[in-house]
Amino acid sequence: MQFRKPMALHALALGMTLALTGACVSTPAHAASNDNNVEWNGLFHDQGPLYDNHPEPTASQSVTLTLRTFKGDITSANIKYYDEADSSFHWVAMHWSSNDATGRFDYWQGTIPASASEKYYRFQINDGSSTAWYNAAGISSSEPSSGDFFIVPGFTTPNWMKNGVVYQIFPDRFYNGDTSNDVTNGQYTYGGCATEQHAWGSSVTSNVGGCNSSVFFGGDLQGVIDKLGYIKNTLGADIIYLNPIFKSPTNHKYDTEDYTTVDPAFGTNSLLQTLIGDVHSTSNGPKGYVILDGVFNHTGDTHKWFDKYNWWSSNGAYESQSSTWYNYYTFQQWPNTYSGFFGIASMPKLNYGASGSAVRNAIYGSGSSVMQTYLKAPYSIDGWRLDAAQYLDANGNNGSDSVNHQIMREMRTAVMSVNPNAEILGEFWGDASSWLDTGDQWDGAMNYNGFTNPVSEWICGVDESGNSNSLTPSGLDSWLHGTRADLPTDVQQTMTNELGTHDTSRFATRCGGDIWKTYLGLIFQMTYVGTPTIYYGDEYGMQGGNDPDDRRTFDWSQGTTNNSAVALTQKLIAIRKQYSALRTGSFMTLLTDDSNHIYAFGRFDASHRIAVVLNNDSSSHTVTIPAYQLSMTDGSTVTDALNGGTYTVQNGNLTVTVNGHYGAILEQ
């Protein structure tokens, strides 16, 4: 029974009237009564700390849920939940608990008993003969069959990921800290391409057609060490995600030659330990964390397990059918016909076979496996990003559900056995819920589907690849709502929200080079649900088209707060760090104004109520938002954390003027 699957409903017909359309917001009379009419605009619940007392419960913790309604509006409310332990629905009657600070709302509570089984719940809300249903997908007049809220006992995602900001680095293009290890012209040839050493800041395109992967600029791990002050102190980011660093003949390193060795052009294994130690240290800024890129769907054809070019003294699978590693790959006709990643011959797919296979043990299953080795001392990394995660499989297949999910469950068990606080981040471009909603596989995924693409379409008018497509604020809100509903709350909070990555065109380029659109994107990124993830250079508006142009070298003349976008990034990260409401608080849509291109939402917890107003028009607009929805009381003041301006709540509303392609962060 698939009732629990939200199926990306995007709230299209679910009457989420908290999203008020139009520039004018009127204050309701709030003369709610038992009149056989449930007022949908008063309903709210999510799994923020004010509405769920245990968003990550243990098997022994009951979960008390809070539902908000207009004061005096309903006659009864119930929680209806499905329990996987007995494959049955259960009912919990709710009781009135209290009023909010404004006196406009009632809070109703009910408790789901503790157990180890996964559960999914929705609310039934009654006013006499009228009934409304509420779940993660939205509000409806008839009982929904999907889109329920999740309770996954025993599943936690790392708090450091929920509360952090990621900085993603493509090592060859970030900073050259050691010129002695630079790859020089013609140093070696791979795939018919001789290496090319390009000057920092010059073109990323090779001098020979089809050889872009052979272009090197000299960026390395010493460069990252040298620039930790910029990352940790100037910007304030505290999580570093490194694109692949292991030995490989290409600049991108997604064709691994040796998982045990840092590529010599980047440094040494000892230097990697130094870098990780420096990131973890608090002597040079806030304690940080390191996520490495795990390319485990395939190796390169130069890996000793395969050894297509006889680079190793041992016999690889390509050289001999008697090779120790022959069954690590899938040959249709040995040696030249085999399964490659998307058919790419230089990236032969690993054959994970059955549980307990040699490949599974080599990658994650044994104490000496690749994943466990780097999670342990002396490296002690904090997590793995899984490249092409959905495609890991056996016998040359590309991610059959049963085998792929089995691999991921085993991988999680192995990772948690070494570091229960480690992050497992999957690369996925669509709805990743089948890896995320049961708590036994990944912690989060790269949020292309729930952030990168919709935000690009709204702000830039193109998707993440630069194809023309635009969204209205109401369409944006619908998209974002649906993708949040697909996932448990603690997963939502660890989805990585990127404006761009090494696999997309640059955000600034998609937005036509308008730095104000970069400002708007940064404000959105730092206030939305999830872990903000900056692809190096996006913080100053780096330009670049699709791969390889999105991997230009960092312009260090811009890596300073003299650059207005860098200064804004610094301020935004500091604001995010200051207010837990922006990290783990509730999310509520406040306004979608399609005519004026305004999107406003609230983030709140017990300590602070914050209204974020985003203006995607080229002109400034005076915007009125329903502050009462955040329980901001009349006469109370808010401060714009961006410019220090103060505003007073009047008749339940806040009115603020927001510059074009900019925003306001109104906190109290």
UniProtKB/TrEMBL annotation:
GO terms for molecular function: alpha-1,4-glucosidase activity. Residues 168-576 form the Glycosyl hydrolase family 13 catalytic domain. Pfam families: Alpha-amylase, Alpha-amylase_N, Cyc-maltodext_C. GO terms for biological process: carbohydrate metabolic process. It is an enzyme of class 3 (hydrolase). Its EC number is 3.2.1.20. Coiled coil: none annotated. Keywords: Glycosidase, Hydrolase, Signal. The keyword Protein biosynthesis does not apply. PROSITE patterns: PROKAR_LIPOPROTEIN (PS51257). It comes from the Bacteria. The keyword Hydrolase applies. Gene3D superfamilies: Glycosidases, Golgi alpha-mannosidase II, Immunoglobulins. Residues 1-31 form the signal peptide. This is Alpha-glucosidase. It comes from Oleiagrimonas soli.
